[in-house]
Design goal:
Number of strands: 9
Radius of gyration: 19 Å
Distance between the termini: 7 Å
Shape: globular
Order of helices and strands: EHEHEHEHHEHEHEHHEHEH
């Protein structure tokens, strides 16, 4: 089995607070470290009632402090929301406190809506050309400072924080290839361009100081339980989240609902089938078979597992099952 990692959206279940979600994340990463997961990432989202990781660097610091060996990072930081220097200082600080354990994944989407982008105090007139320039500027801040360098990230300079490019289209795949960076594709919610992006990344890859050969991580949903029926039931919380988002009514994570799919239109069922096609659902044996088939089909070097399950105990159980599969 290839390395397995965790993407935690720090989702806030109905009846809970962001503080509850962050405590759950801290408990999960402690288990993840013992279970042998490679890394643990959280993502930047803003103005979303159901996600508690908006201050991503702060959350990463809390998670890294609770552990000692697992890599912790951002999957990702939405770079258009920030100046590269600020991110270099934040992640340089994290790397100074937790050396050799911090990852920085970068995305070019805002992670929110237009109004919230304005509230973040960034101009809205930039082009896609800004993202590659910002990535290169950020990478330079992590290199050792040069004599006479006018702007130095302190902390940051010389820490060599490893960068990843995140994406759901050919743009990020091409950029990661040209810059010689590892690439993480958002197949767990936007698999439409997955096959094309994988091929594009590998074709465009040029070795760099960070990476000699392409390294591909794919997002993957897992709903694992002691029976296939229970796993399918637990999956309905994520289904509800997607449908609510498409209807323009996002919120906290809803509890699972028996027979939920039967309440949906044909178009909504088709939408769910597409956005969730990179998923494993079922008992340990069923999930192991689905994961192996996905790895064989894609040639992924690593899977980033997300298990958005309403009940925290059952979410822990799902990741425990995945960890057992990884050790087989």
């Amino acid at each position: 089995m290839i390395p397995l990692s965790i993407l935690d959206l720090a989702q806030v279940p109905e009846g809970c607070t962001p503080a509850d979600a962050l405590r759950n994340s801290r408990e999960l990463i402690r288990h993840a470290e013992r279970w042998g997961f490679q890394r643990y990432w959280v993502a930047e989202h803003h103005n979303m009632e159901g996600i508690a990781s908006a201050a991503t660097a702060v959350v990463i610091g809390n998670l890294a402090e609770a552990t000692s060996t697992i890599r912790v990072g951002a999957g990702g930081i939405m770079l258009p929301n920030h100046s590269p220097l600020v991110i270099a200082e934040q992640f340089g600080t994290l790397a100074s406190l937790y050396p050799g354990r911090i990852d920085l994944g970068l995305g070019r989407a805002p992670g929110t809506d237009q109004r919230t982008m304005q509230a973040l105090r960034r101009h809205l007139s930039g082009s896609v050309d800004d993202f590659p320039r910002d990535v290169m500027e950020l990478r330079n801040y992590f290199k050792p400072a040069q004599p006479g360098q006018a702007v130095v990230a302190t902390p940051g300079a010389g820490t060599g924080v490893p960068l990843w490019i995140l994406g759901s289209s050919l743009f990020g795949a091409g950029l990661a290839g040209v810059l010689g960076l590892p690439y993480a594709f958002a197949s767990h919610f936007a698999p439409g361009y997955m096959e094309a992006a994988i091929a594009h990344y590998r074709e465009r890859f040029e070795p760099s100081a960070q990476l000699e050969r392409p390294y591909l991580m794919l997002g993957y949903n897992v709903f694992a339980a002691d029976s296939d029926a229970e796993a399918r039931f637990l999956q309905t919380s994520m289904m509800q989240s997607f449908v609510r988002l498409r209807r323009g009514n996002p919120g906290k994570m809803a509890p699972p609902q028996a027979g939920y799919e039967e309440t949906l239109s044909a178009a909504e069922r088709q939408m769910l089938a597409e956005v969730m096609r990179c998923s494993a659902v079922g008992s340990p044996a069923s999930v192991a078979q689905q994961m192996q088939a996905f790895i064989a089909a894609t040639g992924a070097d690593e899977l980033m597992i997300t298990s958005p399950i309403f009940d925290h105990g059952k979410r822990l159980r799902s990741f425990e099952i995945v960890a057992g599969i990884g050790r087989e």
